[in-house]
Automatic annotation (TrEMBL):
It is found in: Cytoplasm; Nucleus. Binds 1 divalent metal cation per subunit. The keyword Nucleus applies. Its cofactor is a divalent metal cation. Its EC number is 2.3.1.234. Residues 44-321 form the Gcp-like domain. Gene3D superfamilies: 3.30.420.40. This is N(6)-L-threonylcarbamoyladenine synthase.
Amino acid sequence: MTQKQPRWRGGLLALGCEGSANKLGLGVIHHSPTGEVTILSNVRDTFVSPPGTGFLPKDTAKHHRVHFVPLALRALAEAGAAPSDLACICFTQGPGMGAPLTAVAVAARALALLWDLPLVGVNHCVGHIEMGRAITGAANPVVLYVSGGNSQVIAYAERRYRIFGETLDIAVGNCLDRFARTLEISNDPAPGYNIEQLAKKGGARLLDLPYTVKGMDCSFSGILASADVLAAQMKAARAKGEDTFTEADLCSSLQETVFAMLVEITERAMAHVGSNQVLIVGGVGCNERLQEMMGAMAKERGGSVYATDERFCIDNGIMIAHAGLLAYETGFQTPMEESQCTQRFRTDEVYIKWRD
């Protein structure tokens, strides 16, 4: 895979539009006749809420509406492409937050009508997986998909991405983000990133937190509640001038616990399907400690871990363009009357016609 920007020779171009949460991403991708994938542009703008708060759907949707047109024009300009060069407009159809999803879908429909191009609705999770496979070259890995809204262990079989295990309540990224609010950590550039940086300063004290694995599934709400209690105890002790653990200790302990759970269910899936490859995708996949822990497990099994950097693991338009174009090349299109978004678009609902 290349990220150079030569003029394309044959093949197809697509514009991808992603806005399932607080990140608005647009990108243009090129698939050559021989199967080479070239990223022509990948631009993003993030809605950042004040410390101690989350992002509300209505505010996030407003952000996406305001920034969509400038970002789309920038994506085309950086790609050196005109609307007439595009084969299709790809957009995130779900899962995600309803209001921002709809805001971007409306904009994508408008472009499709304005430029007389077909629409391709894309499953957000499948976008992450296909982008990860393209960037890393992983052939047939077990996939750990971890983000603010999703936590799933996935493996491919018979034209579907099968879900082997998932969260029973909140996603691991949501757990980390909400704990950042408890500590009133900045949301810029991302709460999970700032949790990670604090965790690097801790580790001297591993605090006791619930470890909740149920078969192949995980639960994170109890861990979050316990971490919130410990944070309150820390603040109370500090107010009395007593010696206590630190924010860094809390962040490190929370990471160690939730990541150990994810490593456990991923290893179990690897054993079941007989794979020695792990591909980590989604925003939490950028976390260096998660990659380190997963790498240690995979090494013991004689395997390897594949992950991408923040350009591709964090929500972006290019992953939607790539997965959408893969589907379009098999003849798939989304009729305008079927282009509504759904917050509960399951990964295993998608027929993966482009894979054997």
